[in-house]
Amino acid sequence: MYFLLKHKILFFSGTILKKVLKMRKLKNILKKLSYFINLNILKKYSPKIFYIETSLVCELKCPECATGSGLIKRKKGYMSIEKFKIIADKIRPYAENIGLIIWGEPMLNPDIIEIIQYASKFSKTVISTNCISLNYNLAEKLILSGINSIIVSVDATSQEVYEKYRRGGDLNKVLENLTLLQKLNTENGNRVNITPQFIVFEHNQHQMKEFSKICKYLGLKPNFKAPYIRENSELKNSNIKKYIRKKYLNIKDVKRAMSKCTAVKNMMTILLDGSVVRCCYDCNEDIIFGNIFNDDVLSIWENEKYKELREKLLSNKGDPFCIKNCLMYSLTFIKNL
Ligand code: SF4
């Protein structure tokens, strides 16, 4: 009798235990499922691409750059790893791609490797660099940092042509460091996508072929890109149609083109002091939608002014600031406004 009773108790407690375990398993599955559902809902209506200004300092004086040309009136400096971590932890549920550059040279930031390592744990990461401040140690750390893409600004094959745009730079140093990056990348499994970039102007278009040859020799694919030329610039477009940015003849066409603006659809631009602005063209923080150090991603994204701008641009109504300052969608003669 005692034997039977013992077995019955054991049987029941075993069944209860199994049921509890099943329930727990189910609870865990439901918890995970709701996490992914919530995450996907959050992602669908939130920014996916984040541009973060990790540096507002550069050694060069490129005439079309807002930093190099002295257009930026904000306080210069670098973003510390401590500040970056605050931002990173807020954008983590939404970020699919993070550009660690807006204005300024990111590789001058003493914390840049730690910043890349932190961001690369949860998102794809990209930087664009002039490659001047690299040395073996820094280049090796960069390749091993977890970064996905490195864009290297070159734009020429001779010093004379190079410094017409990259003022204050040394082309030999750039090519030396590009070669070093590629060598280290090859030795470490070719994990990083390295793109040598050539912005095509009138003054350097004759060096495009030679640049392609250099890239081929290094085992890299060059990216030739049309420039954004500001009004009254001394620099001129090339005569290759493909590398001339489209300009619009009237306001109606510009407004229509602006409805394709990805900056307001799924991108968030975070400046050095945490201010969130529409895109890189608001380089002096004329209209701030919030500050990432004080607010969370969604409350900034849903800010009334931000929503209003999004609605205006997406419904072909345009926006005065954009019409005046945008280099992506601009009129042929801005002064005719
Ligand atoms: S300035 Fe240009 S790129 Fe920036 S938000 Fe306006 S339309 Fe978009």
Describe how the helices and strands are arranged:
Layout: H1 2-44, E1 49-52, H2 81-91, E2 97-99, H3 112-120, E3 124-129, H4 136-144, E4 149-153, H5 159-165, H6 171-187, E5 193-199, H7 208-218, E6 223-225, E7 247-248, H8 251-258, H9 262-266, E8 267-270, E9 275-277, E10 290-291, H10 297-301, H11 304-314, H12 320-325, E11 330-331
Parallel strand pairs: 1-2, 1-8, 2-3, 3-4, 4-5, 5-6, 7-11
Antiparallel strand pairs: 8-9, 9-10
The protein binds iron/sulfur cluster.
Walk me through this protein's architecture.
- Helix 2 runs parallel beside helix 3 (112-120) and helix 4 packs across helix 6 (171-187).
- 42% of the residues lie in helices and 12% in strands.
- The radius of gyration is 26 Å and the shape is globular.
- The chain has helices at 2-44, 81-91, 112-120, 136-144, 159-165, 171-187, 208-218, 251-258, 262-266, 297-301, 304-314, 320-325; strands at residues 49-52, 97-99, 124-129, 149-153, 193-199, 223-225, 247-248, 267-270, 275-277, 290-291, 330-331.
- The strands form 2 sheets. Strands 6-5-4-3-2-1-8-9-10 form a 9-stranded mixed β-sheet. A two-stranded parallel sheet has the order 7-11.
- The longest helix is centred in the N-terminal third of the chain and has 43 residues, at 2-44.
- The mean pLDDT is 90.
- The chain has 12 helices and 11 strands.
- The chain has 337 residues and is an alpha/beta fold.
- The structure holds iron/sulfur cluster.
- The site of iron/sulfur cluster has 13 residues, from helix 9 and helix 12.
- Iron/sulfur cluster is lined by residues 258, 261, 263-264, 278-279, 281, 313, 322, 325-326, 328-329.
